[in-house]
């Protein structure tokens, strides 16, 4: 064993050193072009122009006033505006379909989650049907959230961002559409399978492996067009969002395939594999998609490039390296090799590096412009999400420490933490992104701006109750379990008020999602007044030439 | 695709190569290394393979999601008082020689179950507890599983297993009969017994565990 430990330690030190050399060398070369890459998301003369299709015309005026009142928007290059219009159009159908499915899954997932939550403090409620038992409705909730809402929303947002960021049209949109359809069939079949009691028995990997094949093929069909588009890019620099999306699309299929391979894993090895997957699906799939969206929309809405390009480079590679090895911290105190756990704890602490890089970058971009949050619905969700990303990551690092983990492991505290990441960060960013994207997809504004505010305050209020309640409840539960003089039963009963608080918070969140979904479908059926101000890429008064060029082949500069 | 920009620019090739190297490192660490270390482990002599019925019960444990509230991994006494609660000694990798899929669990909304068979070997208790948890454990938040039982007015047929409920919970003239699925589940639960000594020599070599600081 000593040999194994020294080999591992050596590899670890070498790889960390290599990582820093790698980053240093890339950063050195990027001092020249770093600035150019950061403004890649803007057209010529566009820096300083705010953009938020979810804002009303009045909000957009206020937003522009808050950011750069003197900026003139009429110097844009008509050809570039036309390029962006065509990029948006090329992806609009498949993006619209993916996001619609995502919203449907969100509503179903919320209802399943709420039922599961209530069952924990009302155990005799709805017990006669097997599919409604806690042990089935809870994994139905998790899988609908992970593979229904989060994956579909992330794929939709990524499909929309890629052509925009590469200034070209989406290649092979029909493959992505077919992929999305297969994925939807897979999620439906997986949900039914769990309800009927057919589960592979591993958390995050419950869907029977035969159904997983649908998700693998569907995912590949979605990823393929994005890589084809990448090869036809018309931009010199790959913007940071592109790295995250492209890497996420490579990582996820491999993770999912290896994790679900039938007959390969066994016993305790399967447990380490389980958390290699369980943590990487967050770190190498959802987090990259969420960060890609945040890295695009924050500077785009504000009309201001991200603070530091080099920091984003450091953030990307260190996230990939450290995040991918933290899974073992889910098994602290379990029957697994101690070196594995120790490495995972060390890497969990090292996660502070990418988190601080992202935090500085995103928060310094917003810093000094907080008034913009008043006027931009998109930004309100995304900036909140970015803040909660920092919070959840720092919390995650601390939670991996043995002393903290000993209390929180096996308790509701962990559940609260998981929701801080996947809801507080990821889902908030996705809400904001959808508010930005859908007016472009539908060529129709959000009909009732008050519903966006209602959605925001309901989910923020609900989630605060959820998170604070469950964190305290879980912590007390953990302390009680560690005290040998307290009977186990007391660690159960003391959580009841906190579990009830979680149901109240969850109900508010669900209500917020119903408002969101209703608004989404009202937009789909083009309810509300015909305004079409911010929804059009180029307002008629700003770039009339671009508006005229829309149906044609573009106007030369 | 090259646009002749900086030598250190991030491009597709660097992205793919870097992303794959990093994922391989993580996979080697968390999937392949444990695979190589554990694949030749022998089951301890005190551990019996599951019977056919017990495996069916294990499948029922999975289907009904027991894993979402119960762990199967007692921690070391230096970390947590699991042993003092009667949950057993700290488990080692070889204790799971027959456990695929693994059911280590992540929550203790209910107690650890790795040694529930040693702690509570009564079939009657388990059947009654699955039918009416609060009849046996006041304050419990475990759901009852009525769909694993058949409730009938009158009497049981020969060969049927009747659940013996505490008097306060039994309704006169009514019998509760355990279906085959719940009998298998209870058979599995009773089989959960790792009270034999841990395979120390082997585990020290391959999976020694460190106590928390």
Notable traits:
heterodimer; A: 557 residues; mainly alpha; 19 helices; 0% strand; B: 213 residues; 3-stranded antiparallel sheet; elongated; disordered C terminus
How would you describe this structure to a colleague?
The complex is a heterodimer of chains A (557) and B (213). Chain A has 557 residues and is an all-alpha fold. Chain A has 19 helices and no strands. Chain A starts with a helix and ends in an 8-residue tail after the last helix. With 213 residues, chain B is mostly helical. In chain B, strands 1-3-2 form a three-stranded antiparallel β-sheet. Chains A and B meet through helix 1, helix 3, helix 4, helix 7 and helix 8 of A and helix 1, helix 2 and helix 7 of B.
Helix-strand layout with pairing:
The complex is a heterodimer of chains A (557) and B (213).
Chain A: H1 2-38, H2 57-67, H3 78-121, H4 134-166, H5 173-196, H6 209-231, H7 240-260, H8 267-302, H9 309-323, H10 338-350, H11 352-366, H12 372-375, H13 377-399, H14 402-408, H15 412-442, H16 449-482, H17 488-493, H18 496-524, H19 544-549
Chain B: H1 12-38, H2 52-63, H3 116-119, H4 123-131, H5 133-136, E1 149-153, E2 161-162, E3 174-178, H6 180-191, H7 200-207
Antiparallel strand pairs in B: 1-3, 2-3
Helix pairs in contact in B: 2-6, 4-6
Structural class of chain B: mainly alpha
Low-confidence stretches of chain B: 201-213
Largest sheet of chain A: none
Net shape of chain A: globular
Neighbour order of strands in the largest sheet of chain B: 1-3-2
Cα shape of chain B: elongated
How big a fraction of the residues of chain B is strand? Answer: 5-15%
Number of helices of chain B: 7
Helix share of residues of chain A?
Answer: over 70%
The Rg value of chain B, from CA coordinates, equals 24 Å
Q: How many E-type strands of chain B?
A: 3
Largest interface: A-B, 103 and 89 residues
């Amino acid at each position: 064993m000593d040999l194994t430990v020294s080999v591992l330690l050596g590899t670890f030190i070498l790889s960390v050193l290599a990582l820093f050399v790698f980053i240093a060398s890339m950063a050195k070369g990027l001092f020249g072009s770093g600035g150019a890459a950061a403004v890649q998301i803007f057209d010529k003369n566009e820096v300083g122009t705010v953009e938020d299709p979810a804002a009303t015309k009045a909000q957009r005026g206020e937003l522009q006033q808050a950011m750069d009142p003197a900026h003139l928007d009429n110097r844009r290059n008509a050809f570039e505006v036309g390029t962006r219009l065509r990029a948006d159009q090329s992806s609009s159908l498949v993006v619209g379909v993916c996001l619609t499915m995502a919203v449907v899954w969100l509503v179903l997932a919320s209802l399943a989650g709420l039922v599961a939550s209530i069952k924990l403090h009302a155990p005799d409620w709805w017990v006669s049907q097997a599919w409604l038992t806690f042990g089935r409705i809870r994994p139905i909730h998790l899988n609908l959230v992970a593979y229904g809402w989060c994956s579909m929303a992330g794929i939709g947002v990524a499909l929309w961002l890629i052509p925009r960021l590469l200034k070209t049209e989406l290649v092979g949109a029909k493959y992505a559409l077919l992929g999305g359809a297969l994925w939807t069939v897979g999620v439906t079949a997986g949900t039914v399978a769990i309800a009927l009691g057919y589960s592979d028995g591993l958390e995050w990997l419950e869907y029977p492996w035969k159904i997983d094949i649908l998700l693998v093929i569907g995912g590949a069909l979605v990823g393929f067009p994005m890589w084809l588009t990448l090869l036809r890019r018309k931009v010199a620099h790959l913007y940071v969002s592109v790295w995250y999306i492209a890497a996420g699309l490579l990582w996820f299929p491999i993770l999912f395939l290896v994790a679900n391979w039938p007959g390969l894993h066994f016993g305790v090895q399967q447990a380490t594999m389980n958390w290699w997957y369980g943590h990487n699906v967050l770190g190498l799939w959802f987090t990259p998609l969420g960060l890609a969206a945040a890295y695009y929309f924050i500077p785009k809405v504000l009309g201001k490039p991200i603070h530091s390009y080099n920091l984003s480079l450091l953030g990307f590679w260190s996230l990939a390296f450290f995040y991918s090895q933290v899974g073992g911290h889910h098994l602290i105190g379990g029957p697994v090799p101690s070196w594995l756990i120790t490495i995972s704890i060390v890497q969990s602490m090292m996660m502070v590096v990418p988190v601080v890089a992202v935090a500085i970058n995103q928060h310094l971009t917003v810093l000094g412009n907080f008034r913009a949050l008043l006027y931009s619905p998109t930004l309100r969700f995304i900036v909140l999400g970015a803040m909660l990303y920092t919070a959840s990551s720092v919390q995650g690092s601390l939670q991996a420490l043995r002393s903290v983990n000993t209390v929180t492991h096996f308790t509701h505290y962990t559940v609260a933490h998981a929701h801080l990441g996947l809801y507080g960060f990821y889902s908030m960013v996705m809400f904001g992104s959808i508010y930005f994207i859908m007016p472009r997809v539908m060529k129709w504004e959000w009909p009732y701006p008050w519903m966006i505010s209602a959605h925001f305050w309901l989910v923020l209020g609900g989630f605060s109750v959820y998170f604070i309640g469950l964190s305290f409840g879980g912590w007390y539960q953990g302390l009680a379990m560690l005290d040998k003089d307290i009977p186990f039963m007391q660690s159960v009963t003391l959580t009841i008020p906190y579990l009830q608080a979680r149901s109240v918070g969850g109900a508010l969140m669900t209500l917020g999602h119903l408002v969101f979904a209703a608004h989404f479908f009202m937009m789909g059926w083009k309810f509300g007044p015909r305004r079409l101000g911010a929804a059009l890429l180029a307002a008629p008064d700003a770039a009339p030439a671009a508006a005229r060029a829309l149906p044609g082949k573009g106007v030369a500069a | 695709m090259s646009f002749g920009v900086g030598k250190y620019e991030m491009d597709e090739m660097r992205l793919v190569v870097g992303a794959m190297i990093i994922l391989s490192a993580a996979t080697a660490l968390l999937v392949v290394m444990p695979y190589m270390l554990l694949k030749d482990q022998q089951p301890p002599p005190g551990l019996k393979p599951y019977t056919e019925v017990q495996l069916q019960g294990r499948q029922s444990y999975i289907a009904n999601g027991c894993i979402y509230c119960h762990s199967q991994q007692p921690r070391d006494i230096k970390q947590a008082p699991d042993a003092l609660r009667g949950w057993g000694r700290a488990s080692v990798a070889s204790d799971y020689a027959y456990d695929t899929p693994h059911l280590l669990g992540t929550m203790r909304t209910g107690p650890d179950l790795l040694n529930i068979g040693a702690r509570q070997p009564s079939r009657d208790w388990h059947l009654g507890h699955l039918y009416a948890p609060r009849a046996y454990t006041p304050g419990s938040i475990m759901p009852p599983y009525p769909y694993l039982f058949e409730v009938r007015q009158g009497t049981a047929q020969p060969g049927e297993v009747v659940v013996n409920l505490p008097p306060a919970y039994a309704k006169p003239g009514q019998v509760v009969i355990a279906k085959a699925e719940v009998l298998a589940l209870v058979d599995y639960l009773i089989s959960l017994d790792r009270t034999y000594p841990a395979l120390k020599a082997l585990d020290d070599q391959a999976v020694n565990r460190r106590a928390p600081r």
